[in-house]
Design a protein that fits this description.
The chain is built from nine helices and no strands. It has about 210 residues and is mainly alpha-helical.
Length: about 210
Amino acid sequence: MPDHRPSTGERTMLAALRAGTPEHHHAVERVLDLPGRVRDRRDLVIVLDAMLAAWQPVEERLATAYDWGRLGLDPRLGAAADLLRADLALLADDPPAGRGPAPGDLPALGGAAAAVGGRYVLVGSALGGRVIAPVIERRLGLPEGRGTGFFRRAGRTPDADWRAFRTAVDRRAWSAPERAEAVRAARETFAVIARTAAAAFAARPTTARPRAR
């Protein structure tokens, strides 16, 4: 997650989200184990497919779970499942289709606070990919951005997306119950991503085993 100097809004909603989710965030990192999990192109295809299975349903639910115009935000802010599909199309003639979570397993993201919690996970996730992508490209001998468009958020503006999100959250005063609801939604969003990716890796293991932590 990003580490910015806190503004007034961050001392409330965003600070609550940061303080309330590190364990869940780290659980996703342990499951994905990037870039260490990727040792060859097959590994990269498996990882991208697992991430698509996890990301796309959450993105789709977030886009419709709340009227984002009330916060002045694009309902697709930070969405990047299309980049995962594009990466898979470049790397595999017949990309696998990982099984995503059932609709009933997705987090409840209705209402402003829960929607903000879910969006926090996806918008924040974009900022770490720029470190992962160059390592994978060097290891696999890939040109910059080939098969790593999702990690690089090719053609997107993740820093600007984060600023837009932060500004929108800062503009509103959030009650303690709303902050708690946002944390719940963020934790559930992290958890469903971790579960979905773990199930995908169990069904189709990568060459490299995850590091023990």
